[in-house]
User: What shape does this take?
Amino acid sequence: MLLSGFILGILGSFHCIGMCGPIAFLLPLDKTNQTTKFFQILLYHSGRLFAYGLIGLFFGLIGKSLNLLGIQQALSIGIGVTMILLVVLPHKTITKYNFVTPITRLVSKVKSSLGQALNKKTPDTFLIIGFLNGFLPCGLVYMAVLGAIVTEALLMSSFYMVFFGLGTLPLMTTVVYIGDFLTQKTRQSIQRIIPICIVLIGLLFIIRGLGLGIPYISPKPTTEIVSANFECR
Assistant: This one.
């Protein structure tokens, strides 16, 4: 399951170039010292991964609570169906229901703090920028969150989001170093692949929820057998 988060991150990084790329380009990097620049970028990514880990931990708590209610498999199927519907349904139908309205103010505060951090050049600046960057709204992050909810354990939810973040590192780091190198045609080709992969991951969650007895992919649900043998004298 962690692999699906990593794959989603790799593909999502092409989307991240458009969403987070401008922030990466604005990083107050030290261009005179390559070693310092490397560690500044490392701090930026560490901040993002830490934010993703916290997000995974939070939604993992929700998933754990639902698991205690015995609906983890049904939840896995439901989230798989949701992933597919978000790809299949027309964009107008989805945007008709604005689910992010309650957090609009929070996002506004994050952007404001991010703008202030970009004007500083202290070592902790890059960690803060990356951390705040991790909380900015993004469709691919939402998909990863859905995956984190249905993981088997609390820490696995956090690791799932961290693996998603790790998948974004290679391309995001390359962009910071050599700039906007992808042509518009290449981006459009990649963008067509992302929905297909989301559907495949959604199908994976559905298969997992069905409990077909496939090791590591769709294990059968386990039930605890309690012995009721008593010896009477």
